[in-house]
Amino acid sequence: MENLMGYLGPPGTFTEEAARSYAKDRTFFLKPYPTIDQVFTAIAKNEINQGVVPVENSLEGSVNQTYDLLSGNPDVKIAGELLCRIEHFLLTAPGQTLAKIKEVYSHPQALDQCRFFLDKFLPAASRINMASTAEAAALVAQNEGKAAIASRRAAGLYDLEILRENIQDQPFNITRFFLLALVDAPRTGDDKTSILINLHDQPGSLYSALGIFASYNLNLTKIESRPVRNELGKYIFYLDVEGHREDEKVAHALKELKAKTLFLKLLGSYPRATTPS
Predict the structure, then answer these.
(1) What pTM does this model have?
(2) Are residues 110 and 241 in the same domain?
(3) Residue of 177, 178, 213, 261 marked catalytic
(4) 178 is catalytic
(5) Do residues 176 and 260 make contact, with C-beta atoms less than 8 angstroms apart?
(6) Which end of the chain is more exposed for a tag (fewer CB within 10 A), N or C?
(7) Looking at 41, 66, 175, 261, which residue is catalytic?
(8) What does the pLDDT look like over 121-138, one tens digit per residue?
(9) Containing domain of residue 256, as a range?
């Protein structure tokens, strides 16, 4: 198999930008997939070596689908994280103006990240969710009265005009992506470990679980809850902790934690990414 890296496509998505950035000094061939689910499936079936999917944005929070798929795909591991600065552009077919725009298409996260701009300049325009920003750009390319929120690269790929630049609500807009594979990454000395746990339904269970990390002086950088789909009011928890699963303190903490949970899934250890300037 060639060195293939899958990503949420089509070409022109921000996920492609993250994948291109990671692969530029490596011998990877990029392969787009129309959904996050299909990237996971391709990894699980060993059709590609690695995959890139969005997981979290600094303005709008987590991409819940990615967390749910991590829970439901036991063979897929997190092998890395990528942090990319996101700049959104309002794109249209040539010759359009703001006054002509009746519909705005994009990924739900992108629409939410540009809420202030849309409320101010396009309050009457319908906001229509798409599977990706690039799919939105492709759709509006031949349509009057429609606009897409997407990347500068998407404008070039689909022959669109940039009607407005940098329309995100805040200038600091960072998206975190996971690099997926069938194995996680070796220890570097500056790592993170992600885990999934399900706790006993009793008072103090979460407090007790989190206290284990405090007792080992380990820093938790993220706690995320997601509903158990077959039972209302029940939750599983995703945790990110500084350190690698092979670090002595992390290994001891995970062993203690496993004894206090209904189940513990190690999602992967991987190098910690730095925030882009």
Answers:
(1) 0.88
(2) no
(3) 177
(4) no
(5) no
(6) C
(7) 175
(8) 999 999 999 988 999 999
(9) 191-269
